Amino acid sequence: MTDALHPGDPNGQTSPAQQEEPAHGLHVPWRSPVIETGLFIGLVLVADAIWGSGDRFMHAQLHPFWAIVLFMAVQYGTTHALLATGASTIALLVGNLPPQAFDQDVHEYTVQILLRPLLWMAASVMFGELRVRHRLQYVETVDRLRNAERRVELLSRAHGEMTVAKERLETRLAGQLRTATGMFEAARELETLDPNEVLQGATDLMNVALSAKGFSLWLLKGDALVLVAAQGLRQERGLAPHYSAENPLFREVVGARRFVSVATPDGERLLEGQGLMAGPLVDPAGGNLFGMLKIEEMTFLDFNLSSLRTFKAMCEWIAAAYANAVTHEANRIEDKTTQLYGARYLTRQVEYLTEVALRFGFDLTLLFFRVDVSELSDDDRHALPAIMGRVSQKSLRRTDLVFSHEPPGTQFAVLLPGTNGEGAVIAARRLVQALRDACRHEVNCTTQVRTLCVAGQSASRQALRAITSDMVA
């Protein structure tokens, strides 16, 4: 039983090389030795018939059949050597027995006939077993060499993995040394009064605080979550640009205001393979919900209980900063960067100019200007309000007022005193053309003209205020 076990295998299991070998260590196809033996014996018999005496070299002192017997023993082993011995004996003796002498007894005659086959058999066993032993030693040596190479490969692979782990730990240690500085810089970028800059600072904060490779920021607009910022998203994931109110993740995060992660079966089912964790952006001071933050990709070592707690703190931090920025944006009269008036200031100006237009009898028109930002690059999308402010100063009159409108950065409102509906259409065309020239490519825009007051029109102030409120909303 011990001979059948692999000498270098600690589990005592046979190796693949030994499973291919039979018990005697030789696994040679039968076709080749049989063909070689048959061809050799046939050539010897043909040579005897042509050039010999026709007795199949019976009286030759060194018979030619010794060659095939020894060759089979040395090359293939005992089994094939005995096969050659049997074939040689049949080819030599069948129909070629020598006559028995008158004074020769049966034993001497039998020895005379069988002596040569017996010598062949003895040589086959002796040299064949030597070949089998050599083959077994060869197979054992090769198997040990394979096991040694396998061990070296495993050790080399383990060394490589340990090296990678060491470098990763060194990188994490160096990153932790820079975390305090990075957090301070990211927090400084987050504490701004511009909502767009808050979103940009949130991406930097996620990189520093959680080392997230892929994440997305969604804002609540109406009854849907719309993607407004993303980093590290892969195209093959096929992430949807928005989540509707019927989506289970929307109901859990927005409706129930809960955090979900793949650490729980319910969270894994809700995320549907498109994220690791998601949470609502809720202002801790006012309780207003602005959207959702979702982590799509991060390293295995970074995803732990501490990262989940940090993620919840980041959601509250980003929501508080965004709430402050939105409040400031709504109460701001004019943005010095974009030269646009705030959205809340629009209502006051519309009411005031409507009263003035009614009293002095001039035209007053409100133009809504909406830009399709889905085909714009991220840089053009962020720079759109500033571009709109610049082109409006060049293409509109100094008395025309341009306001930001909802959704911010996408829709604008232009209040045109002394301009009727036809003039508003002309102004809208100039704006579209100026915007396309500024962006240097085609920009899809949608315009809508609302007439608030017509010169010489008599209408009650209550009716005009109702119409104005409806138009602004």
Description:
- This protein has 473 residues and is of the alpha+beta class.
- It folds into three domains: 2-152, no CATH class; 180-330, GAF domain (Beta-Lactamase, 2-Layer Sandwich); 332-472, 2-Layer Sandwich (Alpha-Beta Plaits).
- The protein is 55% helix and 15% strand.
- It has 14 helices and twelve strands.
- The chain has helices spanning 16-20, 31-51, 65-75, 78-93, 106-177, 179-190, 195-210, 248-255, 265-271, 305-331, 343-360, 378-395, 421-439, 461-472, and strands at 214-221, 224-231, 242-244, 260-261, 277-282, 289-297, 334-335, 340-341, 364-371, 401-405, 411-417, 445-453.
- The chain has a six-stranded antiparallel sheet with strand order 3-2-1-6-5-4, with helices on both faces.
- α4 (78-93) packs antiparallel against α5, α7 (195-210) runs antiparallel to α10 and α12 (378-395) crosses α13 (421-439).
- The longest helix has 72 residues, at 106-177.
- It is rod-shaped.
Key attributes of the depicted protein:
Beta-Lactamase, four-stranded antiparallel β-sheet, 3 domains, alpha+beta, 473 residues, disordered N terminus, six-stranded antiparallel β-sheet
Secondary structure layout plus pairing:
Layout (H helix, E strand, L loop, with lengths): L15 H5 L10 H21 L13 H11 L2 H16 L12 H72 L1 H12 L4 H16 L3 E8 L2 E8 L10 E3 L3 H8 L4 E2 L3 H7 L5 E6 L6 E9 L7 H27 L2 E2 L4 E2 L1 H18 L3 E8 L6 H18 L5 E5 L5 E7 L3 H19 L5 E9 L7 H12 L1
Antiparallel strand pairs: 1-2, 1-6, 2-3, 4-5, 5-6, 7-8, 9-11, 9-12, 10-11
Helix pairs in contact: 2-4, 3-4, 3-5, 4-5, 6-7, 7-10, 11-14, 12-13
